[in-house]
Amino acid sequence: MPVSSQGFLNEARWVFNEHCSGEDRYRLVVSRAYYGLYHCALEHADALVAPPLSACGGGSHAKVSSFYQDHYAGDRDLTRQYRKIGINLLRLHGQRVKADYKLVESVFIQDSESVLLSCESLFAQLIQLKAAA
Fold this sequence. Notes:
By secondary structure, this protein is mostly helical. It has helices at residues 5-19, 23-48, 60-70, 76-101, 109-132. The longest helix has 26 residues, at 23-48.
């Protein structure tokens, strides 16, 4: 059964609600929440450009955040919304890198909650943008 971007986000929420005690769980929430958002953002970007962004070479996480930061949506407010999504993707990617690779740096429950809430909010924004397109 294929995994969906919503599935990653649901897993992060479930771990946070049911099993969030201990730094390993906080790190898991950050990682899963970010990947849910990343895959949603990539799917949305792929629908907007040809060839699809996922088919182009280069660092995929930087490529996705750059796409949103640089995307001109034809409307100033919409373009600004895309830019904010891109900036937040970059910020959240940094949190995911910390959670997955920087084991000497602490990740606290507040970090996992903040990342989870940000990812859920941005995910909802992307779904709205997709529906409006």
